[in-house]
Amino acid sequence: MKISVIIPTYKPGRYIAECLESLGCQTLAADDYEIIIVLNGCNEPWHSELDSLIKRYLRDKNVRFIQTDKSGVSNARNIAIDFAKGEYITFIDDDDYVSPAYLEELLKHSSRDRVALTDCIYFDDESRKEMIDNAHHRNFVKNHQLTSPTLFQTRVFFNGPVMKLLHRDIIGERRFNPRFINGEDNLMMFGISDRIKKVTYTSTSAIYYRRIRENSATTKRRTRSQRIGNSMRIMVEYCKYLSKHPFGYNLSFILSRFAAELKSMITD
């Protein structure tokens, strides 16, 4: 098995059908990837609905459908990582979808110590035609022809686990921290960054489509006190990683992570 695709989901809406359909239309051979869906913190009627969608869109694919009463996206991702059989792992959020060549392109440009990144298009869930300007797409357009982009140059892609392919050795024994509701993605990416030796981009045919919808986890606003408290806790965790492997992390990337948390504390 080449790739394990991990999709955590909680009370999924209509949008997950588009996510699963996009994975059923991949140009990568069906035997080369598996799809692990983790329904966390809920059961019916979502279990039956998902089972129906899997039969409709992923009938001939390798699918593992897991239900757990334990809630939280971090717990769901950790469960899937432990079950994954693939040499590489990629994450997709349940309200997003990917282009047909997504997995094939990621695999083509990845290696044991090289992380491949894809283009990303944000779109408004209501209008569907309104494309939203975003830092990931701007970075891809500006840098995707670089032969050897640095971790610092591609830092925007390491705010979360999607839009990339990670070798199992890069993840290793490290897992998402379930104690964090916000910032757990940044923390995980920071934690494994010492194992990332090279970064590259795929061709323009690999696209991650990110759905922006009202009241989603990514758009929900937090109070300033919540942001400050969360950022301080994250920076403490950063320091713990550094204390265990002080010379393994990229200095410019480290400073950018701390700067991002400080910015989050002082800006609305």
Quaternary state, please? single chain
Rg from Cα? 18 Å
Number of strands: 11
Secondary-structure element series = EHEHEHEEHEEEHEHHEEHH
Report how far apart the termini are: 44 Å
Beta percentage is 15-25%
- Low-confidence parts, pLDDT < 50 over ≥5 residues? none
Number of helices: 9
Which descriptor suits the 3D outline?
Answer: globular
Mean pLDDT: 93
Spatial strand arrangement across the major sheet: 3-2-1-4-9-6-10
In short:
With 268 residues, the protein is of the alpha/beta class.
Structure description:
By secondary structure, the protein is an alpha/beta fold. The protein has nine helices and eleven strands. The strands form two sheets. The chain has a seven-stranded mixed β-sheet, sandwiched between helices. The chain has a four-stranded mixed β-sheet with strand order 5-11-7-8. A hairpin with a 6-residue loop joins β7 and β8. α7 packs parallel to α8 and α8 packs antiparallel against α9. The longest helix has 21 residues. It is globular. It starts with a strand and ends with a helix.
